[in-house]
Every structure is written in C-alpha cells, then in structure tokens.
Amino acid sequence: MNQADVIVIGAGAAGLMAAYELCKQGKQVRVLEARERPGGRIHTVQPPHFTTPVEAGAEFVHGDLPLTLSLLQEAGISRKGAWGERWRREGKKLSKLEGFIEQEDLLLKRMKELKEDLPIKDFLDRHFQGSEYEHMRRSIKRFVEGYDAADIERASTFALRQEWEGEDEHQYRPAGGYAAMINYLLNACTNRGTVFHFSSTVERVQWEKGKAAVFTDKGEQFVASQLLVTIPLALWQVEPPAKGAIYFEPQLADKLDAAKLMGMGGVIKVLFEFKTTIWTSKQVKEATGADLSGAAWIFSDEPVPTWWTQQPAQSTVLTGWLAGPKATAMVSMANEALLEQSLQSLATILSLPTEELRRELTGSQIFNWQADPFARGAYAYNTVQTEQARKTMIHPVENTLFFAGESLYEGPEMGTVEGALSSGKRAAEEMLRNQE
Fold it and tell me: Cβ of 87: how many Cβ atoms within 10 Å?
C-alpha cells in the first residue's frame, strides 16, 4: 500500500498545478496518470518527417492570461506573438476578413438585452430569423462549432456573450511549445518529493471522511487523507467499465448527474508539413487571386474547414482543425480517411489539385481527441445548465474529495490551459485550508 498526504488523479495542467502548490507547502503528494506521459491534452511532439515540434493539443495562450503568463515567466519560457490576416473561402472566392462574426455590434446589442439564458440556436431563431441574417447565422454557427467546439443547440448565449465582449486580440504561443511548461511543473514537483505513477489507470475509489483509497488497473492501492480528481469532463459523462471512467464507493450521484448537463466538444487536429509554404505559391495566387503570405487563419465550409499557419513565424507547417458536432460524428473514421479528406479540403480552399498537395507533403499527423479514451473530447463549453452544474461538481465532499480541471474553472477562460491551471491552483488552496 502506498500512502501520502494527498493523491492527485491526472497529470494534466490542473493536476500538475495543484501538485506544485501542495508540495511547495510540504505535502507528500502522489500523482496517478493513466497515460505514459504528463500533460494530458497538452502534448508537444515531433512526428516523423517533421522538422520542428508541433502541438497535438493545446497550442495558444488566448490573451493576456495572468496565471499562464506568470508561470511561463517563472519557468523562464518566452512567448511568441500569434497574429496575421484572416481569410475565408466562400464559394470559389478567397476574401480577407475583418472579424470572425458578421454584424457583431448588432448581435451583442441583442445579447445584452437578453434577460434569461437560452441556447444560442434558440436565440438566433428568436432574434435573427430573416433571410437578411442568413450570413450572420452561418458565421455564428461556424464560430461556435469551430472555436468553442460546441453544439449550437446546447451552447449558452450568456457564456458566448461574456466571451465575445471580453475577447482579447492578443494571442501567443509558448516558445518551443507547451511541453516546456509541463516539464517545468513536473520537475519542480519531483524535486520537492512528489512521486508520479504513469501508465496507472484509476478504476475505483473507496472513500470515507478523512480517507480515500485508490485502486488502479495494475492492482496498485494508494491511500491518502485527501484526494483531488482532475479527469476530463467526458470521463465523468461515461460510466464504468468504460476505459478512463472511475467507480466511486460511495457513489457521487449528484456529480455524475451534473456532469451530463455540461458540454464537451470534440476536435480533430491535422498537422501537415510541406516542402515549401505552398499556400503562398505563385500557383495559388494565380488560381485564387489571393496573396496568403500574411495569412494566419483560413476559414471555409469544407469538411476540414479551418486552417492556420505559424504566422508571424515563417514555417512550412499548416494545421487543420475540425471541431464540434462534425468532429464528434467522425470519431470512428480511420486516420487514412481523415488524411485524405483533409488534403481534399485544403486542395479546394487553395484551388490546387489534391495530387499536387500530396507531392509537396513531407509529413502528416492526425490527432483525433474524441477517439482518445483518456480524453474523449478536446475541451468543455458552457451550456445553459453549466453554471449551476459546475457548482455541484467543484463542491468538496467531506473535506476529503476535491475536484479540478479546465471544465471546472468558473471564469471566462473555461476550456483553456489558463482555466486548467487556475482550477488546479484553486483546488490546492482549498485542500490546504481544509487541512488546517
């Protein structure tokens, strides 16, 4: 039997941040992680035939987010700005965009007048039904699905209003990828005596006030007076014996019910590296009439609709992005089929033959996050019921069981690394107060 003051389930950003705060206060911490690596949905890799590391999961710092930026500074990790032009393929035309959403001022005005929350689809049906708003409705649907990875029939209008009102134009990438931050936390915890157990999938938790016993698929048993659970929301939404789901004795029925009221979005991320920046080639300029040399994002209605470059850095890597219900519908599609669909989508956007792209391709990798058994999705989004459900989810049980994760962050940065870090820090502070 392995004993500690605290057991943390999950070595993603929330779990690592919590462990970091706890071990700094002298607590003996053990972290149990189902994967063979730390980071969770943060995963910086260098696949075969790629000349540079790429992000399989989280990639951006979405604004001047205090905890993420202070942690990067503490770790001595610089950040790079991420900016550039936004383009959209509409029919056979590529056009530069000024914003993500059409008629944004009118949209926000109507949103501010709303007294009671409702799903964004119902809001649009109520206030923007006419044919003159067709393009607006389509742009909002694309944004909600593509950026928030959300279902418009469930996504909260109030939450989207808060997100759009506070939208920060600043975007960054950690230099070298998020892995540097993850490794900093891992090493800092290890140096303070935290013990990590990788490839240890938690299957069952037996608990009573002041004691939690945790059992893994390896037959291991760990015991502590406090337990922090940081599994992704989707693992709360499935039941044992599904891989990654945890059986609690006694059961936590209120939390399991609350989790089902919250939203979890799927994402498929496609990484391509080409011999050259083919999207800036003379051939593309002649075919489309567009100069994409300053393009950071390109949007379309193709099966893989969104693509981004590494702007302003010069790179031959191009990232494809499919999110929301459309990504979830492709959960079982083979990587070979996803690769082919991605190439065809990009070929249409750039008005190039698919075979031309294939000849220029030097490396490719598909990351299907909803097919990952320990993630079952990319990140959470707010439904109309989320605010109340989250309060139920984060409430500690008998000062023994505690809960954190990006889905349990109460600020507007839900679904981000900032949200995960902040939630982990909040939980650690709560645990320390309850040990006093």
Answer: 23
Pick the CATH number of 84-168+267-376 from 3.40.50.9100, 3.90.660.10, 1.10.287.130, 3.40.50.300: 3.90.660.10
Cα 10 to Cα 407: distance, rounded to the nearest angstrom: 14
Return the domain boundaries, the chain: 2-42+177-262+385-433, 84-168+267-376
Q: Which conformational region is residue 305 in: left (phi greater than 0), alpha (psi within -120 to 50 degrees), or beta?
A: alpha
Number of other residues whose CB lies within 10 A of the CB of residue 204: 15
pTM value is: 0.97
CB 354 within 8 A of CB 347: yes
* CA distance readout (Å), 419 to 15, 32, 66, 426: 12, 21, 11, 10
Block residue for tokens 């005596």: 193
Residue 358: strand pairing partners = none
User: 78 and 69 in contact (C-beta within 8 Å)?
Assistant: no
Architecture of domain 2-42+177-262+385-433: 3-Layer(bba) Sandwich (3.50)
**How many Å apart are CA 216 and CA 137, to the nearest integer?**
47
The CA distance from 212 to 228, in Å, is 10
Work out the number of other CB atoms within 10 angstroms of the CB of residue 392.
Answer: 15
User: What single-letter amino acid sits at 190?
Assistant: T
Which two three-digit tokens encode residue 255?
């939390």
pLDDT tens for 122-173 read 999 999 998 999 988 998 999 999 999 999 999 999 999 998 887 667 899 9
Structural contact between residues 119 and 156, judged by C-beta atoms closer than 8 angstroms: yes
Residues in CB range of 396: below 8 A, 6 or more apart: 402, 403, 430, 434
Phi, psi of 299 (to 5 degrees): -110, 155
- CA dist 427 → 248, 394, 431 (Å): 19, 9, 6
* Whole-number Å distance between alpha carbons of 154 and 150: 8
pLDDT digits (tens, 9 = 90+) for 174-201: 999 999 999 999 999 999 999 999 999 9
